[in-house]
Design brief:
It contains nine helices and 14 strands. It is an alpha+beta fold and about 325 residues long. It has a five-stranded antiparallel β-sheet with strand order 1-2-3-7-6. Strands 8, 11, 12, 13 and 14 form a five-stranded antiparallel β-sheet that branches. The chain has a two-stranded antiparallel ribbon with strand order 4-5. Strand 4 and strand 5 form a beta hairpin. The model has no long low-confidence stretch (mean pLDDT about 90).
Length: about 325
């Protein structure tokens, strides 16, 4: 594992105001309308940060989000995203450009709409447990008799949740009525419709490239000047989604499916009995495998080798 490709923190406070440091992302204010997001190689699981980073993860998530932003904007003309450019702001010191290149993006400042918009197409992971008890997922009745990892017969379902802000807090499922009460019915309905439209568009694109999107979560913000709901944060990455290999899934249709996402790391933490424990040191082999999963998803979706992409100047 090369430390040359590992960035665990950023230090641009001398050049622009620091807005926040999250579990993964550092955010700076560029000007009154623009933020700089630096996606580090820090990683969290079960809502707590781990001690070990994943090399190249920040670049993979950043470049994949930029890719999806362009794809989705072309396919859904009414969709607005917060993405502006992969270029660093002018006030970034020149000697730091190489350090933050590929893992930085400038985005529009928005009013956060504080819920997570989750779309699920398959009965897996946290959706499977309640289904076994009462044939529901997040309070939504589901046809009985389905198998683990099976696709929902009636198509994808929308299951909003709260957005945990403190380390160790967990997102909580909510009904659509609760979501409307939280952010307003006009925005809650718009987010639901956008989330399902984005998912269906992305799922078709991904399937053609060998990936099933079993579930994913979106975040949105509000452009207060136009009252538009805008897609924000990371988009359809191995960290916000469950990606499965089409060929492997179609071979079994249920049971264990090899993912190209963070589930491999979550499974290791659970097996070792340290899920939810802050500051866990992850063995190098698990780090390497996790990086491979992320790169595998990136390369299928983008259609190019990760090293080839980062070897280029990608001013967008």
């Amino acid at each position: 594992m090369s430390d040359n490709h590992l960035l665990l923190t950023s230090n641009l406070e001398q050049s622009m105001p620091l807005v926040s440091k999250g579990k993964v992302r550092d955010m700076y204010s560029v000007n009154t309308s623009t933020l700089l997001i630096i996606t580090t190689d820090r990683i969290s699981a079960f809502d707590v940060p781990l001690a070990t980073g994943i090399p190249n993860k920040g670049a993979i998530l950043t470049l994949l989000t930029a890719h999806w932003s362009q794809i989705l904007s072309a396919k859904i003309p009414t969709l607005k995203t917060h993405f502006l450019t992969l270029n660093l702001p002018a006030q970034t010191p020149p000697h730091l450009h190489k350090k933050y290149h590929h893992r930085s993006m400038q985005v529009r400042k928005l009013l956060p709409l504080k819920l997570e918009a989750i779309v699920r197409s398959h009965l897996t992971c946290e959706a499977w447990d309640p289904y076994q008890i009462n044939n529901t997922v997040c309070g939504i009745p589901i046809q009985p008799g389905l198998l683990e990892n099976q696709a929902f017969p009636t198509g994808p379902i929308y299951t909003p949740s709260t957005k945990a802000t403190a380390i160790g807090e967990h997102d909580q499922d909510m009904t659509e009525t609760q979501a409307a009460n939280l952010i307003g019915p006009q925005y809650a309905d718009r987010i639901k419709q956008l989330s399902l439209s984005i998912y269906e568009t992305a799922a078709a694109y991904a399937f053609d490239r060998g990936i099933i999107i079993a579930d994913t979560k979106f975040e949105f913000g509000l452009d207060e000047a136009t009252d538009e709901v805008v897609l924000a944060d990371e988009i359809l990455t191995p960290e916000s989604s469950r990606f499965w290999s089409v060929e492997e899934y179609c071979g079994v249709g249920r049971g264990d499916v090899r993912g190209l996402d963070k589930q491999f790391l979550r499974d290791w933490l659970s097996k070792e009995g340290v899920a939810g424990r802050e500051g866990v040191v992850v063995p190098e082999e698990v780090v390497r495998r996790t990086e491979e999963m992320y790169k595998g998803a990136f390369e299928r979706l983008v259609g190019r080798r990760f090293e080839e992409v980062v070897g280029e100047e990608m001013g967008v």
